[in-house]
Amino acid sequence: MITTANRLKTVEEYYFSRKLKEVNQLLSEGKPIINMGIGSPDLKPHASVIEAIQVALLEPNAHMYQSYQGLPDLRKGFCDYYANNFNVSIDSTSEILPLMGSKEGIMHIAMAFLNEGDAVLVPNPGYPTYQSVCNLVGAKTLLYDLKEENLWYPDFDALEKQDLSHVKLMWVCYPHMPTGAQASLELFEKLIAFGKKHHILIVNDNPYSAILNDNPLSILQVEGAKDIAIELNSLSKTYNMAGWRVGMVIGNAINIASILKVKSNMDSGMFFGIQKGAIEALKLGKDWFDSLNSEYRNRRELIFLLCDKLGVAVNRNQVGMFVWAKLPNEYSSEIFIDQLLYEKSLFVTPGTIFGSQGEGYIRFSLCVTEEKIKEAIHRI
Ligand SMILES: Cc1ncc(COP(=O)(O)O)c(C=O)c1O
């Protein structure tokens, strides 16, 4: 056997990749598993999006390599989205780069900005990829705790007391996954001021702003934010296109050029048809979001009911595509979710996969039909 690179020892197979093997084993044994774990939208993209990719397949240049920076219309579509939803103005030629999902952007940003030994502030709880990517590039993770009593916001007093001299980048994610906490403009202003004071690149990962959220925000709304901040966004949840792999990174022209330097060495452009579909998706307006959110709202009400039945506590003001729930004090997340899995055939995510601050919590996905949620309630 050829030995693997040392960096592989720093990461583990992704939780869902491991746990879904266990879930699939139970399914193959005939267990009627309801998967409420993963946030992969089950609803379809808009018909115009499907039509656009179909039509695109017949265009003469459809199967060729595509531009590293994406089609101009796609970049313009992203810019229009930011102008319409956040009142943020972006230069479509230099301040935006399409990505194959925002997840790859997390790696590209780390490759573009981090040297071995640089320190990175990573939220606990938070999306596990931030830490894995730090490990893969040899950066040092400094976890910062988010706590319910502080609205899942960073504790700036505690951060200021830390040695920040080696910190180069800070990951933030609002609306926050997994807790569903929404940022305020004031929080974003504090983050930008913190980044400027300590010369730390602030990266906001923002894929959930359009879901069950009456006040969508972007960190780039803060005056002067582009000087020190980058934002990732994605079509995965906003337009039910998770499998299409379309995202974007937005920042000032110098930062975007640095990310392009990495990315253009990794892939050779996004499939033409996918870009054409994405362009159509980005044209969708209020009707699309109203109908999407009405479906998620109904599902969330049922999940709240399920939570009541389970005796777990929820904050009904949370936003995004999940429900984050607090277990009674004596329960551990992983024991609780295994009990649900093995006794009730319900798969729910334990809060601990998002970090130690997720202990005592579980996360339900809203990517489950109302019928299945009703069945889950019935089982409890
Ligand atoms: C917080 C967060 N960031 C990024 C991603 C990746 O999304 P994408 O499909 O755009 O790669 C996810 C997906 O679940 C997520 O929850």
State the main characteristics.
13 strands; 4-stranded antiparallel sheet; globular; binds pyridoxal-5'-phosphate; alpha/beta
Mean pLDDT: 96
Number of strands: 13
Rounded radius of gyration (Å): 21 Å
Q: Classify the secondary structure makeup into a structural class.
A: alpha/beta
* Spatial strand sequence of the major β-sheet: 2-8-7-6-5-3-4
What is shown here, in short?
The chain is α/β, with parallel strands linked by helices.
Question: Describe it for me?
Answer:
This protein is α/β, with parallel strands linked by helices and 380 residues long. The protein contains twelve helices and 13 strands. It has helices at residues 15-28, 47-56, 72-86, 102-113, 129-136, 156-161, 185-198, 253-263, 272-282, 286-310, 333-344, 370-379; strands at 34-35, 96-99, 119-124, 140-145, 167-172, 201-205, 229-234, 247-250, 313-314, 322-326, 346-347, 349-350, 361-365. It has a seven-stranded mixed beta sheet with strand order 2-8-7-6-5-3-4, sandwiched between helices. Strand 9 (313-314) and strand 10 form a beta hairpin. The longest helix is centred in the last third of the chain and has 25 residues, at 286-310. The termini are far apart. 46% of the residues are buried. Residues 39, 101-103, 127, 173, 177, 205, 207, 234, 236, 242, 247 line the site of pyridoxal-5'-phosphate.
Please describe the topology of this protein.
Blueprint: H1 15-28, E1 34-35, H2 47-56, H3 72-86, E2 96-99, H4 102-113, E3 119-124, H5 129-136, E4 140-145, H6 156-161, E5 167-172, H7 185-198, E6 201-205, E7 229-234, E8 247-250, H8 253-263, H9 272-282, H10 286-310, E9 313-314, E10 322-326, H11 333-344, E11 346-347, E12 349-350, E13 361-365, H12 370-379
Parallel strand pairs: 1-11, 3-4, 3-5, 5-6, 6-7
Antiparallel strand pairs: 2-8, 7-8, 9-10, 10-13, 12-13
Helix pairs in contact: 2-9, 3-9, 4-5, 4-8, 10-12
